Amino acid sequence: MKFNIKKQSFYKSLSSVGRASSTHSPLPILSGIKFELRNNTLTLIASDSNISIREVIYANEENNLVIHEEGDVVLEARYVLEAVRKLDADIINMEIIDGALTRISGNQAEYNINGTKGDQYPIIDFTKPEKQFEISGSKLSEIISQTAFVCSTSEDRPIFTGVNFKANGTTLNSVATDSYRLAKKVVELPVEIDFNISVPASNLYEVQKTITGDEIITIAVSDKLVQFYIGETLIQSRLIDGLFPDVNRLIPNEYGFELVVKKIDLINAVDRSSFLKSEGYWTVKLEATPDEIIISSKSQEIGSSEEILHPINYVGGNLKISFSGKYLIEALKSFKSETVKIMFVGEMQAFVIRHPEDDSIVQLILPLRTFD
Amino acid sequence: MKFNIKKQSFYKSLSSVGRASSTHSPLPILSGIKFELRNNTLTLIASDSNISIREVIYANEENNLVIHEEGDVVLEARYVLEAVRKLDADIINMEIIDGALTRISGNQAEYNINGTKGDQYPIIDFTKPEKQFEISGSKLSEIISQTAFVCSTSEDRPIFTGVNFKANGTTLNSVATDSYRLAKKVVELPVEIDFNISVPASNLYEVQKTITGDEIITIAVSDKLVQFYIGETLIQSRLIDGLFPDVNRLIPNEYGFELVVKKIDLINAVDRSSFLKSEGYWTVKLEATPDEIIISSKSQEIGSSEEILHPINYVGGNLKISFSGKYLIEALKSFKSETVKIMFVGEMQAFVIRHPEDDSIVQLILPLRTFD
Which residues of B touch A (CB under 8 A)? Predict the structure, then answer.
């Protein structure tokens, strides 16, 4: 194996693929990146049991890839990344000098890195499932931003650590919940398709990082995995086993109170009460009357905060409701609009946050019981 | 106690004083800032057993301080800082509303913070010792930058966790060592004075953070403490007990090899070998001949690196020496010059780094023994 390539584009590809390598895997070789040099292309592969990334680099003017000798090798991701990053050269040379010992050089500096032979790397099946559809990068990124943050980080109920994507005809429902809050986004697809899968939130964030703009992304789905084709990069994620609960019945249809407010005003007011938090959580109380809306919080030990909120509009009578300040801020931040509409059923009922002109997204939060 | 003050300058003073408060102190009240409102001034005090900071705020046009009622209170530093930072107001109002419960408000928002009565706070003796001298902020900052980084962070030998300042006549010697390396800076003082004190490096960094420019700083010294008067801020540090060893005899007088090199070239070359590090340390080998200078490093497990260094000048024969890459980079970075002069005695002897035109600063590093 021997090739040279422009540092900048090589480093970009290595960082993108390297994110799938894992230093925690029971299989030590999975902390590496596999380099495959064949038929005038350089293919980079990294994988743990959870996510696999493959990038195919074709020689072009931008990357200046020149292949002198085919072959393959596996190099520890963090060392090869560090070596390429630190070399002060426009063109990087890489070659196997002895067995799997690989030289990476540029200018007057060189690294010799102990690698592993390519045939030691497990074979990753990247076969493309037949069920597939296209979506724009910006739309996919928006779906991820508006749902994945809600997912649970605890493995107690694995199904809640991912976003559920359910396609039925041309409608795609994306839903996430951690059982205390819920996000639901509905988009139309260009083809009729039918699937019901749950994808780990952490893998969706990797997909989101790889999206550069408004490129068309192909998503291919089987009952075992999902693939995201983004430019020359293929990200393949496992699915989460288990049935995602039907959450549609949790979203109320009728409301007794409606608050329209500038998003940034509410974020700032709730954030001001956040110094009373412990372990990242704090409870905020909203007290509304037709005349005045007050946001307050309280901690026996530290003290209290209180302020008057100036809404754009409030319809309804007296309402007193407590909720997690962190959850409300995160839900508000998922909206791109300047104003939001918050709809309450009653004091101990779930409330929803909506975009005033866009019905495709709904955020739901369960209230907290307080003792004062 | 009741006053109002401009948010911006108040927050600045609070952060500066708050750095001396400690959440780890066995005395819980020391996690607070003491507010003293007397005679048209607001005095802020914070202290742990190690460092004390006092700032006196006189009403002026910049801070808009208006005192309505004298008094004092102690408030938890992190809560009062967070409250003032989060309030979206130009002017902050602060008043005791009940016992030690203190209201901090601005605009339509307010915080009520549980405080402690002022007389519960220990009395800190800020009496100014008679032995004192003046120094410019930039000069003091330079002394700290060029010595304190060398100090040990381990409490095994407490005397090595501080910088030793020894004044004799008008000469001030500032020396730091962790027993593997040494920094020595010599400056002239405007007065004849005599002392020998060791000041914790961490406290010197607090002093450095408070220096804003080229203000004149008064340093007052007793055999128990040292005080730094920086504008309206007084920083008082304990001294480290014990005799600082005489290290002058460790600095060689005669050298067999002299390397002059562009500082940035050597930093980059040594940094390129740093991906072989474990726990922040890595060993670098320098091999010099009259024709070529090679920087290399090696790790049994990971691999090796090697590169050719282009010096400005090298005088001496064949030399092979190994040292800590981290120590060399830190020593090099303490110089402001573009080039540095490295002088070697021999293979297993300490070597020194000097500024080509400024003899006031010397950095010394002990070599490492390697087995190859």
Answer: 76, 78-79, 82-83, 86-88, 101, 107-114, 268-269, 271-272, 274-275, 301-308, 310
CB contact under 8 A, A114 and B305: no
Residues A139, A94: one domain? no
- How near does any CA of chain B get to the CA of A33, in Å? 15
Give how many domains chain A has, as a whole number: 3
Return the pLDDT at B248. Answer: 87
Among all residues of chain A, which has the CA nearest to that of B271? A86
Q: Do A114 and B275 touch (CB under 8 A)?
A: no
Task: State which residues of chain A have pLDDT below 70.
Answer: 371-372
Q: Give B96's strand partners.
A: B102
Nearest CA in chain B to A107: B307
Same domain, yes or no, for B331 and B357? yes
> Closest partner residue to A111 among B82, B113, B303, by Cβ?
B303
pLDDT tens digits, residue range A105-149? Answer: 998 899 999 999 999 999 999 999 999 999 999 999 999 999 999
Evaluate whether residue B125 is within a structural domain: no
The complex scores an ipTM of: 0.85
- What separation in angstroms does the CA of A188 have from each of A133, A167, A176, B224, B267? 11, 9, 18, 75, 56
Is the residue at B271 inside a domain?
yes
β-bridge mates for residue B4, sequence order? B66, B93
CATH at residue B172: 3.10.150.10
Mutate to test the interface with A, among B272, B278, B284 (most CBs of A within 10 A): B272
The answer to whether position A184 is within a domain reads yes
Cα–Cα distance, A342 to A352 (Å, whole number) = 6
Query: So what's the pLDDT on residue A275?
Result: 78
Rounded to the nearest angstrom, the minimum Cα separation between B275 and chain A is: 6
Is the Cα torsion angle A262, A264, A265, A266 positive or negative in sign? positive
Check CB contact under 8 Å for A272 and B112: no
> In sequence order, what are the residues at sequence separation of 6 or more whose Cβ sits closer than 8 angstroms to the Cβ of residue A249?
none
Residue B25 lies in a domain: yes
Residues composing chain A: 372
Residuewise pLDDT in 10s, chain B (372 residues): 999 999 999 999 999 999 999 988 889 999 999 999 998 899 999 999 899 999 999 999 999 999 999 999 999 999 999 999 999 999 999 999 999 999 999 988 999 999 999 999 999 999 999 999 999 999 999 999 999 999 999 999 999 999 999 999 999 999 999 999 999 999 999 999 999 999 999 999 999 999 998 899 999 999 999 999 999 999 999 999 999 999 889 999 999 999 999 999 999 999 999 877 777 789 999 999 988 999 999 988 899 999 999 999 999 999 999 999 999 999 999 999 999 999 999 989 999 999 999 999 999 999 998 766
State which residue of chain B sits closest to A276, comparing Cα positions.
B79
| A89 & A148 share domain | no
Residue located via tokens 């607001």: B42
Q: Which of B110, B114, B308 sits opposite A306 (nearest CB)?
A: B110
Domain extent, residue A116, equals 2-120
Q: Which residues on adjacent β-strands are paired with residue B228?
A: B219, B235
* C-alpha dist (Å) from residue B316 to A321, B262, B269, B307: 80, 18, 21, 20
Burial string for B181-192 (b: 16+ CB within 10 Å, else e) reads: bbbbbebebeee
State the greatest distance between any 2 C-alpha atoms of chain A, in Å, as a whole number: 80
- Cβ distance A21 to A30 under 8 Å? yes
